[in-house]
Amino acid sequence: MVEPDPVRRLFAHYDGFPTPDLADALTRGNVVVTATGRPRVLGVDNLLHARDGLVLVNAGHGDDEIDVAGVRGHAVREDNISDEVVRFRLKDGPRVTILGGGHPLNIVLNAGSPEPVLLHFAVSGLTLEHLVGAKLDPGEVIVPEEIEAEAAELALQSLAATGA
Predict the structure, then answer these.
(1) Burial of 101 from C-beta contacts in 10 A (0-12 / 13-18 / 19+)
(2) Were both Cys, which of 17, 85, 155, 158 would link to 12 (CB 3.0–4.6 Å)?
(3) DSSP state of 104
(4) pTM over the 0.70 mark
(5) Which CATH code is given to the segment(s) 6-108?
(6) 9 CB-near residues (< 8 Å, 6+ apart)
(7) Any long-range contacts for 107-113 (C-beta under 8 Å, 24+ apart)?
(8) Which helix (H) or strand (E) holds 82?
(9) For residues 70 and 25, is the Cβ–Cβ distance under 8 A?
(10) Is pLDDT above 70 for 116?
(11) What is the pLDDT of residues 1-47, one digit of tens each?
């Protein structure tokens, strides 16, 4: 796990998790999974000194967490290994394999279950509705259990209505 926020990184360290920086993690890991929801968290500059044979997977919220166009533009060789598996040989760098074209892999493979996403949206919508009239103290606030329960009940009703 790579965490850019120093406070969260320190908490992770004290909880017993390794806390390498990105450059160190890329030289030691075999598989890197992005799940940030932020664009271009992995670019060519990050990958030039990565471990040879590194596999890149996006599990985030969009198709731009891995700079696939930048990797492709810097590659001296591109091999289509199989459906949704492309290996690039970077100029003066390692071979990196990108799965699913850098898109969220569960969506590309049509293997992602929509229910958790829909439940997330239900919780988000109910929480926004709750916030309209709420008086909250500054800082992090946990979603009330009643909202999660209502979202789950709505999801169960929806599944029953569709016969799923």
Answers:
(1) middle
(2) 17
(3) B
(4) no
(5) 3.40.50.720
(6) 3, 19
(7) 108/84, 109/84
(8) strand 75-82
(9) no
(10) no
(11) 788 888 998 998 899 888 899 999 999 989 999 988 889 899 999 99
